[in-house]
Design a protein that fits this description.
The protein has five helices and nine strands; from the N terminus they run βαβαβαββαββαββ. The protein is α/β, with parallel strands linked by helices and 204 residues long. α4 crosses α5.
């Protein structure tokens, strides 16, 4: 049986589209059961609907605090039979209930534990990388554990920082690597090849 996914997003949904495309090309043994967005105007919702995937907005601004919002997300997810939650540009904190420990994954545009944590997302990460002068950055896929960018690391892939890089040029190469690494991690989970031992993730 394909791995049953929920995809959470807040914006354009390019990561969602990448997952959809790979499923449709039989490159990914998964099925997207639902797409949830923290914004009602997120284009990712339209992408889901075009592929007949249930798509629901749970607006962050309609909830008093992060805890209430997180509770609302989980209440909505309870309507679907989901094995893995995939964070795909989801710009809000999400609590991790006991039943979903090591069942929520995220992709980060740097090599954790460098250039990560609260406020480090999108262009903020790439700008910090360039300002630091490091020669290598990369992509990390990790389990989400309720702290920003702290969960066990599943996969990492390096991306060189070039002398003439701008935020945009570096971002483009990071995103290209994300498009490869994120589905690879999902497929490893679908195949039952991921095993968590404390903070270490072993691939069988």
């Amino acid at each position: 049986m394909p791995l049953r996914l929920a995809v959470l997003l807040s914006g354009n949904g390019t990561t969602l589209q990448n997952i959809i495309d790979r499923i449709e090309r039989s490159e990914l043994d998964a099925k997207i059961e639902c797409v949830l967005s923290s914004r009602s105007d997120a284009f990712g919702l339209e992408r889901a609907r075009k592929h007949n995937i249930p798509a629901v907005a749970v607006s962050r601004k309609d909830h008093a605090d992060a805890k209430q919002f997180s509770d609302a997300i989980w209440a909505e997810l309870g309507n679907y039979d989901v094995e893995l939650v995939v964070l795909a540009g989801f710009m809000s904190w999400l609590a991790v209930p006991p039943a979903f420990v090591h069942k929520i994954i995220n992709v980060h545009g740097a090599l954790i534990p460098a250039f990560c944590g609260k406020g480090m997302y999108g262009e903020h990460v790439h700008r910090a990388v360039l300002e630091s002068g490091v020669k290598v950055t990369g992509v990390t896929v990790h389990f989400a554990d309720g702290e920003y960018d702290q969960g066990p690391i599943i996969l990492q892939s390096p991306v060189p920082v070039l002398d003439d890089d701008t935020v945009d040029s570096l971002a483009a190469r990071i995103q290209a690597q994300e498009r490869e690494l994120y589905p690879k991690a999902i497929q490893l989970i679908a195949e039952g090849r991921i095993h968590v031992d404390g903070q270490r993730v072993r691939v069988s």
